[in-house]
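dumping these here so i dont lose them again. two proteins, back to back, each one seq then C-alpha cells. dont judge the mess
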Amino acid sequence: QVQLVESGGGLVQAGGSLKLSCAASGSIFSINVMGWYRQAPGNQRELVATITSGGSTNYADSVKGRFTISRNNAKSTVYLQMNSLKPEDTAVYYCNADRITTRQGFLTDFWGQGTQVTVSS
C-alpha cells in the first residue's frame, strides 16, 4: 500500500532553480534507497540522483555540482534541489523508492507518477 507523491515541477528559465519533493506514504518502517530519475521525449529513463537511508549519495555526471538530493527519513520524503537549470534538464522527473520495509513485508522498486520540469532558454 505504498504510494509516492511528487510535487515541485514547473516551468523555469535557464539558470533558475526548482525543488522537487516526493513523500512516501503507507505503513513504512524504512526505505533503503530513494532517488530521482528523468525521461525526456524520445529518450530512455535515466538516473539523476540517489540517496541511501544513511545519507550516501550518487549523482549523474550531468547534474553534479548543480543538483542536491536529500531526505528526511522520519517523513519518508526525498528532495531534489535543482540549481543552474539548463534546457537539457527538461524532462519528466520520477521519484523512486527501493528496498522498502513495511508492516506487510519487504517491497522493491516503487515509482511516483512523475512531475514535469521544463527549462526554457
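---- next one ----
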Amino acid sequence: QVQLVESGGGLVQPGGSLRVSCAASGGFRIYAMGWYRQAPGKRRELVAEISDDGSTKYADSVKGRFTISRDGAKDTMYLQMNSLKPEDTAVYFCIADASTAWGPRTDYWGQGTQVTVSS
C-alpha cells in the first residue's frame, strides 16, 4: 500500500531539539515533500517544504530554527527542529507531492505525529 510513515515526535523541553522523519513507500515517485502542523484552535500551517531540485522554503515562525532535508535514495524527509518553543506544539503532518504507476500526480498525507514542547 502507498503510505507515508512518520516517526520522531514526542515531548521535549523548551529550547530543546527534536527530529521528525517521514518515509514514503509503495511505489511513490516523489517530486516534493513538506511539513504542515496544526495546533488546537489554530489554522493548519505549512512550516517547511523541499522540492526535487533541493530548494527549500520555511514559514517565518520557524526560520533559523528548523531545517528540512530529503534523502532521495530512501524517499525520506527530515525536519530538524532546534530551539523549540511551546508555540511549536502541534501535530506535524508529512505531505508528499507524488505520483504512482497506477495514479496521477497528487498529494499524499501522513497520519501526523504529535510534538509537544513543555517544561
